[in-house]
Amino acid sequence: MAETRILDHIVHLSTPGELEKGISHFESLGFIVLRGGHHASGLTSNALVIFQDGIYLELIAYDHPIEHYPPDSDDRKKRESGPWAHLPPGWIDWSHLGLDVRIGEIINERSGDNPNVPDAVRYIVPAVAGGRERIDGKVLEWVVTFPDPKHPRGNVPFFCQDITPREWRVPQEPKSNIEHPRTARGIAKLHLLVPQEKFPIVKQQLTQVFDFEPTASPSHAEWPLLTHSQDQHLTAHLHLSYPTNEEQEAHVKSGGSGVWEVSFWVEKDHAEDPAVVPGFGRISWEALP
Same domain for 239 and 164? Predict the structure, then answer.
């Protein structure tokens, strides 16, 4: 069976044309940010924050707002139909590593045609080619498998499978690429929020994606995720819950993604209060054991 629990990266969106503001924000929080380059779509650019556990943050922005493109032009249609085209800035999505080009079919087959699973997750097949030219001119290639658009963005992961070597896309060398002033070593927790009535459905869908039962209660569910590190301290978990306060309720009603907060492993003396900046998403810190 294909492994589907390997967390690859988490996507953060900046306002169109303002990727540098996103970069400055994460630098101010004590992260090393690497300029990425332009995507093959011609619509977006990115930068990366890479960690010791091999997971990274993709800081992305559309190069231009929708209105920049002439009405009815192909570029306008492509810009309007992008998976993140209408989401507000902040955390917007997350990706797992694809190890089989048929990953969408494999996940779809896990529920089969069982009529008792009417809300089963569905992925679009076949996978779609993607790529990016790095600022040093190196051309990266991959394929991506997205969930069906009926699933709100960020509730279940998309999958990214490398054609070119993954270390080209996620350069952990030199070591200075992953030595963050804040001492962040990796992802401790990815917290998703969904409406209370959707909680059992999304829980079922994530169980189908991972092929792994969560630790659960009536109000939350948690799955251990896999990283790219052998360090037993650099564990990652996915936490799913529904809103329990006004701030969380507002997030769910905002039209954004299901991603509520990202927590990072840091040295104990850097485990401070959460960083909450409107338009940039919530960040929290977990002290390394």
Answer: no
